[in-house]
Design brief:
The protein is 40% helix and 17% strand. It is of the alpha/beta class and 282 residues long. It comes from Ruthenibacterium lactatiformans.
Length: 282
């Protein structure tokens, strides 16, 4: 059965100290989660500029980088399902990245997309696929597997036939590169997430789950509402069909991640509500 996990990025605002981090992880465990997905720049000290950039993007990283995450996950009994990193770090020293992943007991390293990158540039996409293959081969030599995590930018068309994501799927070898599929971002981008999951098949090793809808009230000016992330089972996504597909290919983990719009502005309350859906289906 797939591990139920939470992406560390969701927890930035509740990792202000070791005590608060322990309370947060204990609340996760009590809610029914047995895993966590770590971010490379949230388990190491980072510079002020990176903190400000992530905060401006609505994804504050908090003070987790100052904590001993090996001890925290060990003491709370959580499994590390993967380690998020960036392609540049992996290209500079694949052995070091692999060693850190293995030190946390996970076999997966995940590239979380590319920044300052044009996903509409076909030549750049062909080059990215080659880089991912090389990085995946280097990790494989260390006994670690490479996954690519999507957002909505991979849905950009790069020619009359292909979207960016299709080039990455078609030009990376499954012996070197597979995928952590985020169904929320493809749904947000207007795509049929279930159809894409089916196309990935067994190359989908991890699944990022979220729901999408609104808890806002309409205004006097217009009945149209702005949608955002929602707790699982409270939005409009067909999570049941997505879950059936994910389990049919034996994903190793189903990982909750949302960045905002939490009930009572609390990521802990939000993950507790979402756990009810996950505990019912996993």
């Amino acid at each position: 059965m797939a591990t139920k996990a939470v992406q560390q990025f969701m927890l930035g605002t509740v990792l202000g100290s070791e005590g608060e981090a322990r309370q947060t992880l204990a609340a996760m465990k009590e809610a029914g989660y047995d895993g966590i997905e770590l971010c490379g720049f949230m388990i190491h000290p980072i510079g002020f500029a990176v903190k400000m950039l992530t905060k401006a993007a609505g994804m504050p990283v908090g003070k987790g980088g100052n904590l001993d995450w090996h001890k925290l996950v060990r003491d709370t009994g959580l499994q590390v399902v993967s380690l998020h990193t960036d392609l540049g770090s992996l290209e500079r020293d694949a052995r070091a990245v692999a060693g850190e992943a293995k030190g946390f007991g996970t076999k997966y390293v995940v590239i979380t997309g590319m920044y300052r990158f044009n996903y509409g540039d076909e030549a750049a996409l062909h080059d990215l696929a080659r880089r991912l293959n090389r990085a995946g081969e280097a990790l494989a030599q260390e006994g670690v597997e490479l996954l690519y995590h999507n957002h909505n930018c991979e849905l950009r068309r790069v020619n009359g036939r292909q979207r960016a994501y299709e080039i990455l799927m078609e030009e990376t070898g499954p012996q070197y590169v597979n995928f952590e599929f985020d169904s929320y971002w493809f749904t947000e981008g207007g795509a049929d997430a279930l159809a894409w999951m089916r196309r990935l098949g067994a190359r989908m090793k991890l699944w990022h789950i979220n729901d999408r809808g609104t808890r806002m009230a309409g205004s006097a000016m217009t009945p149209i509402l702005k949608t955002d992330s929602m707790e699982l089972g409270t939005g409009n996504m067909d999570l049941d069909s997505l879950m059936t597909q994910a389990l049919s290919v034996n994903v190793d983990a189903v990982i909750l991640e949302s960045h905002r719009n939490w009930i009572d502005k609390s990521p802990v309350k939000s993950l507790q509500i979402s756990a009810k859906y996950l505990n019912k289906h996993l």
